[in-house]
Amino acid sequence: MVQMEGETVANSSQSDRSANDGDEAPVPGLYVVATPIGNLGDISHRALKILETVDVIACEDTRTSLKLLNRYGIRRPLLAYHEHNAVRMAPKLLAKLKDGAAIALISDAGTPLISDPGYRLVEQAQEAGLPVVSVPGPCAFVAALSICGLPTDKVLFLGFAPPKQGARQRFVEPYAGLDATLALYESPNRIAAALRDYAAVLGPRQAAVCRELTKTHEEVRRGDLEALANAYERQEEAVKGEIVLVIGPPDAKEAEEGVMDDALRRALREMTVKEAAQAVAFMTGEKKRTVYQRALALKAAMDGS
Ligand code: SAM
After folding, report:
1. Which ranges of 62-132 does DSSP label H, i.e. alpha helix?
2. Fewer CB within 10 A of the terminal residue: the chain, N end or C end?
3. Contact between 157 and 247 (Cβ < 8 Å)
4. Distance of CA 282 to CAs 9, 262, 269, 290, Å?
5. Residues 269-286: pLDDT tens digits?
6. Helix extents (H) in the chain
7. 35 CB within 6 A, ligand 1
8. What is the pTM of this model?
9. In this structure, which residue's CA is closest to atom 2 in ligand 1?
10. Centre of ligand 1 from the C-alpha of residue 176, in Å
């Protein structure tokens, strides 16, 4: 092999192997293991080793997890742990952990606890002083950020927004003036409506619809929110697959307007347009006339006219 200048070739003496890199049976504890979000090849060597050796694998849907485990010939006892039985199952899992069991927690896809069950179990295990070990790997919104071409220095992950228009608009309103990229999980059936709502509340921001990541039909569509909303509304065939929506930060002027809009929307829930405009103009130092015009437009949007 030809070695280039500055190139380092890994060998066993150089590689930095951690105390337990998966070649040994895991010590007792709760292993929070990330699994693929589509491409079954996206699982780490360490994750496989841990799944092969734990006493129990707690998973959301046993049928889904069996596809992954069968693919790698892993045969360990499975136990269903999902949002509907979490309260009942947590004490049982904690009792096993206290008895010295090694338990892996996995979800249907990606990293457990990220818009997936597990938070209470991890919290209770931590509180009980039991070992909780991270086995990191795929996560849909991180994968989306890595390829969408929008700023990643400050990111707010918002999970799933509510499905209905009013609630969805109110959900993002507090972040209108925030100087950060927003990442959301969204259903393909609602992507057009969601983009339209975010365009109305957040203004003209760059965004990316990241669909079917790591799968055959992986796609990133970039554009401003309104253009993307138009494109999905016009699209005749149904949108399919899983989606991460990434919305870039506002520019400085938009951020200021976002703060003003946010204050106006809150004021308009309690006050008349005139009162809201006066209060917000006083608070922000903006011209009364500018704020009044904006308050009228926001009021019309809030009333759905
Ligand atoms: N725990 C997972 C993670 O680490 O990303 C997320 C679980 S959440 C219940 C499922 C949502 O994640 C989907 O509805 C979709 O919004 C997003 N998602 C999961 N896999 C995806 C993929 N391959 N491409 C795009 N989005 C995906």
Report:
1. 62-71, 86-98, 119-127
2. N
3. no
4. 64, 15, 18, 12
5. 999 999 989 988 888 888
6. 45-53, 62-71, 86-98, 119-127, 140-147, 165-172, 191-202, 225-234, 252-268, 273-284, 288-302
7. no
8. 0.83
9. 110
10. 24
